[in-house]
Specification:
It contains 11 helices and 14 strands. By secondary structure, the chain is α/β, with parallel strands linked by helices. About 10% of the residues have low confidence. The structure holds guanosine-5'-triphosphate. Keywords: Chaperone, Hydrolase, Nucleotide-binding.
């Protein structure tokens, strides 16, 4: 709902692989994102999430590489200004903006950006900060990942995702921890994004964006050290079984240091295989019926911590003759 003619902005954040894209996709499929602009930001050179969001909302803006929270805040400002210009030019009002942050984002600076930018503050307000927490990995993530704590610290709504994977005891234990870390937040349980925008934004006491809540937050641009995104491309189709063997070996040896694996892999069939792994768990790969675009390269992003990029490249090169394709690798901290 617009307030004082300002457009609401919902920030969807949450640790790597906690289910942000799945949630947004599900909202989109139930037509909860009509006339909604989506801004997607990913940590990694190869953006994949927007390809997986097939039934796209009104408009999708992509902010490539890095986190919305630090390096590219100007890009965020620019994306919002573009939205304003486009909606003015077409004389059509946007209902809402949804920002999907990278899994390593500290959402506080996003809020500051909207509050302080001389133009944006007159046109947008932060309606809700929605934080996804993976019910399966959540307890471990909260204990070990500083970014996760920063996200929970300013949550208005916490969506416990993947509740289908855990029992009631694990769920209740996690909820108790979250209640301590985010005492004001509404907690919503969901599997595969099953919820509604109404449930996410509605609060019993009509909780509105409270500027004071954010005043004590610092504009930190630090991520936990030594996190890097490694992007791998293959120009030729890959032998899927052998690639699976390489992946298993990587996770067996370095599972603790691999935070996220995401990719679209050309296995020589009509559509690609969508690859999705969170920490040491690889989800069942999905064989897509068709490619999301004209690019037929295999694209994979690994987000790793304390793991030497050179050793990943070395092992990929050793395996390349079994893959039937040569890897091209780039890495960014
Ligand atoms: N079983 C189960 N799997 C889920 C659920 N939600 C998401 N997943 C799976 O978890 C994996 C990661 O989900 P995403 O939605 O891509 O997570 P994300 O937070 O957008 O990931 P990043 O953008 O990398 O941070 C995918 O394989 C999803 O299919 C759920 O409720 N239950």
């Amino acid at each position: 709902m617009h307030i004082n003619n300002k457009t609401p902005v919902v920030v969807v954040t949450g640790f790597l692989g906690s289910g942000k894209t799945t949630l947004i996709k599900s909202l989109s499929e139930r037509n909860d994102l009509e006339r909604t602009a989506l801004i997607v930001n990913e940590f990694g050179d190869v953006s994949i999430d927007h390809h997986l969001l097939k039934s796209a909302p009104e408009q999708v803006a992509l902010i490539g590489g890095g986190c919305v929270c630090c390096q590219v805040r100007e890009d965020l400002v620019q994306s919002f200004r573009n939205l304003l210009n486009e909606s003015e030019a077409s004389n059509s009002q946007i209902n809402r903006v949804v920002i999907e942050t990278s899994g390593l984002a500290d959402p506080a600076p996003i809020v500051f950006t909207l509050l302080r930018d001389s133009v944006l503050q007159h046109h947008f307000f932060v309606e809700r900060i929605v934080v996804t927490v993976d019910a399966f990995n959540g307890l471990h993530t909260i204990k070990t990942q500083q970014e996760s704590l920063k996200q929970l610290a300013i949550a208005d709504t916490v969506v416990l995702t993947k509740v289908d994977l855990v029992g009631p005891f694990q769920l209740e234990t996690l909820e108790k921890s979250i209640e301590q870390l985010a005492p004001d937040a509404k907690i919503v349980r969901s599997s595969f994004g099953a919820t509604s925008m109404r449930e996410l934004i509605e609060e019993e006491n009509a909780l509105r964006f409270d500027k004071k809540k954010y005043d004590n937050l610092t504009l930190s641009s630090e991520h936990i050290s030594k996190t890097r995104a490694v992007s791998v491309l293959f120009n030729e189709p890959i032998n899927w079984s052998n690639f699976g063997v390489w992946m298993s070996m990587l996770l067996h040896a370095h599972g603790q240091d691999v935070l996220r694996i995401k990719g679209i892999i050309n296995v020589g069939t009509a559509g690609p295989v969508s690859l999705n792994g969170v920490q040491h768990i690889i989800y069942p790969p999905q064989h897509l019926k068709e490619w999301p675009d004209t690019n037929r390269e295999s694209r994979m992003t690994l987000i790793v911590r304390e793991l030497d990029t050179a050793s990943i490249l070395k092992s990929l090169n050793v395996f390349s003759r079994y893959f039937g394709a040569t890897p091209v690798l780039s890495s960014r901290e």
